[in-house]
Design brief:
Number of domains: 3
Radius of gyration: 22 Å
CATH class of the largest domain: Mainly Beta
Shape: globular
Structural class: mainly beta
Distance between the termini: 38 Å
């Protein structure tokens, strides 16, 4: 799993806090009381807990029509569920909600057309906490594509995933002209998914042109796009034709993540977003990703890419062309406060107008700093072209040396994902040790609601609510806070500010020279 320093700052206790408030009706222990996990699940009723002793269990599990907590007593390294030949590991059926939790398991060896590791049916939901999905496969038939090697989340369903790991899962095809979607995870239309402190390593989407979403594929349909939040995740060495790490026509909110060594062929090596209804990418480090004939990050639709560091990414096609490290296609974008440096491509490439490009440091890119219909914006709207002075480029330590032109300054503030200060910052996804933006529970939620965050030292704090168009609709706090956990209410209506329509919003926290965001869905 991820380094202990990273785990310490992430939200591994979220589900524990839920379970602590529940008086379990009955504990059913495997194999003490029941010979198999499935027999214990069958005997349990809503509110029961199934405790599984260490060992390897050859089973294909089904949970339906009730909410249970199923716990691997010895954790994922010692509690392993392996699917029988050509079957998936877990099926989540109707009337299951996020109150159902699988904690502390390794799910491995699953195979199905969709969701080899776990399959969440339409309108169902589930929580996975401290689980590993290893070497599961989605394999389509000769007439169909495949979806979600590790996990499939069906239309109008949902998933909460925290402190988990997806390793060597794949979406494969049996026919040359079909495609795999989501080597680790596929999320269907109208899905809401919240992913925290999760590592995606060496997952693969295969297909005619390489598949879509080596780690994660997000879907859309006429009914609505998938909504997914990724906070403090690591995407390492995943592969697909389009979106080596993430691809989709959904609404991703990506905050404080690391993308490294991912590969794409015809499309983006790290992230490809057709976010017509809004996306948000902030505070993330994107480095050493490789695309044969594409980009590093490809953006379509409307949304914001702010406060990221993109460095040492490569496009092997060579020469000027539509191979920008950031490629802004059709839509209205806000590309601001990013470092785009030393990439083997054009820094920022625009296929169409409409992008707001401000306060970026675009420097030292092989094929030029700007391309396409983007003029050279250096010196305009706060954009600069100067060596950002990373602490150690060779070791990929992307914090900034004293004197960096990207250090906080007027009018831009901090440029890039990592602040000034070189000591011991080699693991960038642990940078939020100074603060945590805690998840909203439940999510989707209703107003009024509470936004919670934790500080490890006193700091000025700015806490805002942003809509999918990047507009601030509420400022909840702009003041000094002390060390510890703080709760700030967000109200709307006559007593609490302008009315807020149901929809997707982002909570943005700025403190201790860091920026964190979370996606929330407000309902009636």
């Amino acid at each position: 799993m991820m380094a202990s320093s990273a785990r310490a700052v992430l939200l591994t206790l979220t589900c524990l806090s839920v379970s602590a408030s529940v008086a379990w009706a009955t504990d059913r222990v495997v194999p003490d009381d029941f010979p198999t996990i499935q027999s214990a699940i069958n005997a349990a009723v809503t509110g029961d807990r199934v405790i599984v002793r260490a060992g390897e269990y050859l089973e294909s599990l089904v949970l339906a029509n009730k909410d249970l907590v199923v716990v691997g007593e010895s954790g994922a390294s010692l509690t392993i569920v392996r699917a029988p030949v050509a079957s998936r590991v877990v099926l989540i059926g109707p009337l299951v909600t996020r109150a159902s939790i699988f904690r502390g398991f390794t799910f491995t060896g699953g195979e199905a057309a969709s969701g080899g590791g776990a399959f969440i049916q339409q309108s169902a939901s589930c929580t996975f906490d401290s689980c590993r999905f290893v070497s599961n496969a989605a394999r389509g038939t000769a007439q169909s594509s495949s979806y979600g090697g590790g996990l499939y989340v069906g239309q109008q369903g949902g998933a909460t995933i925290q402190d988990c790991e997806f390793v060597r899962n794949g979406a494969y095809v049996n026919e040359f002209f079909n495609d795999g979607y989501g080597g680790a995870i596929y999320a269907g239309s109208d899905v809401f998914m919240d992913v925290t402190n999760t590592r995606f390593t060496s997952n693969l989407a295969a297909g005619f042109e390489g598949g879509w979403g080596g780690a994660v594929a997000l879907a859309t349909a006429s009914s609505g796009a998938a909504t997914a939040g990724f906070q403090e995740c690591l995407f390492d060495s995943n592969f697909a034709g389009y979106g080596g790490a993430i691809d989709g026509v959904g609404r991703p909110s990506i905050g404080s993540c690391v993308f490294r060594y991912n590969q794409g062929t015809y499309g983006a090596s790290a992230v490809s977003v057709d976010g017509w209804d809004g996306f948000w990418i902030t505070g993330s480090i994107i480095h050493d990703n490789e695309s044969v004939a594409g980009q590093t990050v490809s953006l379509r639709g409307s949304g914001t890419m702010e406060g990221n560091t993109l460095a040492f990414n490569q496009a092997f096609s060579g020469g000027p062309g539509p191979f920008g490290c950031i490629m802004a296609e059709v839509g209205v974008f806000r590309v601001r406060k990013n470092i785009v440096a030393r990439n083997q491509a054009v820094g920022i490439w625009c296929d169409a107008g409409g992008a707001e490009i401000s306060c970026n440091d675009v420097w030292g890119n092989r094929d030029g700093e700007y391309g396409g219909v983007c003029p050279d914006l250096t010196g305009l709207d706060g954009n600069i072209s100067m060596n950002p002075l990373f602490c150690d480029s060779t070791k990929r330590v992307f914090s900034l040396r004293v004197g960096s032109p990207c250090a906080p300054h007027d009018p831009c503030g901090l440029i890039g994902a990592v602040p000034v200060g070189c000591p011991d910052l080699a693991v960038p996804h642990s940078l939020t040790g100074l603060l945590e933006l805690l998840p909203v529970r439940p999510n989707p939620t209703r107003l009024p609601m509470i936004v919670s965050f934790r500080l490890s030292a006193p700091s000025p704090v700015r806490l805002e609510i942003i809509d999918v168009g990047g507009r601030r609709i509420a400022r909840l706090a702009d003041e000094m806070f002390g060390e510890g956990v703080h709760e700030v209410p967000w109200r709307a209506g006559a007593a609490g500010g302008p009315a807020v329509r149901p929809g997707i919003y982002f909570v943005r926290l700025e403190a201790a020279a860091h920026r964190l965001t979370r996606t929330i869905v407000v309902i009636d």
